[in-house]
Specification:
Length: 65
């Protein structure tokens, strides 16, 4: 069986960098269903955002996690 992907070839780390905070933002915009985000992950997200790690974020609005 041959598997074909329509996306750009990239590593898992590159993919994670590319999606940024999409998992938490897209559900608020109606593009996907809400995904559970563990409390420790949401807290890490909040701390990284407050520390200025925002260059890959989709918006300046905080997602509802």
């Amino acid at each position: 069986m041959e598997i074909v992907s329509a996306s750009t070839p990239m590593s898992l780390d590159e993919y994670a960098d590319a999606i940024g905070d999409a998992l938490m933002i897209y559900s608020d915009q109606g593009f996907m269903i809400r995904q559970p985000v563990p409390a420790d992950v949401a807290e890490a997200y909040r701390r990284l955002r407050q520390a200025g790690f925002t260059s890959r974020f989709l918006s300046n609005d905080s997602p509802s996690v």
